[in-house]
Design a protein that fits this description.
Blueprint (H helix, E strand, L loop, with lengths): L17 E7 L5 E7 L4 E7 L5 E9 L5 E8 L4 E9 L5 E8 L4 E6 L12 E4 L8 E3 L23 E4 L45
Length: about 210
């Protein structure tokens, strides 16, 4: 189990194929990233400046190093949201789609590229219950969902500090999955893809590439 508020200095023994990184954010919070290359599971635990767990995330990574889907939980493992990723014909991320715990679409982040393959500024939309049309929002003000660098083409976030290994003052962390990723039938339709028909949301086995 996760120990809230603990200041345990020794982390559990890690498997040889597990990469552990510590990410220190400029607001004083920090994230412990654990990625198991054998199972393809990436887990992130975020703590506030008082060293108290505030959020947990789990993502499934394919053999090409891309996150296909994930889940976001609060400190007590209550499911807050699910996320799925779509890629274009060149393997580049083209959409991040977020759902609430009931499976309703609540946000879409669309990524575009110029003729030379350079990523342009993303476009974001949010969805509210009862709204017939999505609301366009400033994508620059939306925090990055996956904090671990080099996943889905994203690098290090400016202002963060990255270190290999566990935190010197990190709460004890369980090595078991937060919760098994659940497959669900998303409410997808052609109307969700006004900008591209190339996005493919793969419903595959965890290690499918």
């Amino acid at each position: 189990m996760l120990f809230l508020g603990s200041t345990e200095t020794l982390l559990p023994a890690r498997e040889p194929d597990q990469q552990v990184r510590s990410i220190y954010h400029k607001n004083g919070s920090k994230t412990l990233s654990e990625q198991n290359r054998r199972t393809g599971v990436l887990k992130e635990y975020t703590y506030d400046k008082r060293n108290v767990l505030i959020a947990q995330k789990q993502f499934q990574i394919d053999r090409k190093g891309r996150a296909r889907r994930g889940q976001i939980f609060d400190a007590k493992e209550k499911l807050l949201a699910r996320v799925e990723y779509g890629f274009d014909d060149f393997g580049r991320i083209e959409e991040e789609r977020m759902f609430d715990a009931k499976g309703n679409v609540i946000r879409r982040m669309l990524y575009r590229y110029d003729s030379k393959g350079k990523q342009l500024r993303p476009v974001a939309y949010t969805y509210q219950p009862g709204q017939q049309a999505p609301r366009k929002v400033n994508a620059a003000k939306i925090p990055q969902t996956i904090l671990t660098p080099n996943i889905n083409g994203f690098g290090e976030i400016p202002g963060n500090r990255y270190e290999e290994g566990g935190m010197r003052e990190a709460p004890g962390v369980s090595t078991r999955p937060i919760r098994r990723l659940k497959s669900h039938v998303s409410r997808l339709s052609a109307s969700f893809f006004p900008y591209s028909r190339r996005v493919v949301f793969h419903r595959t086995t965890p290690r499918d590439g």
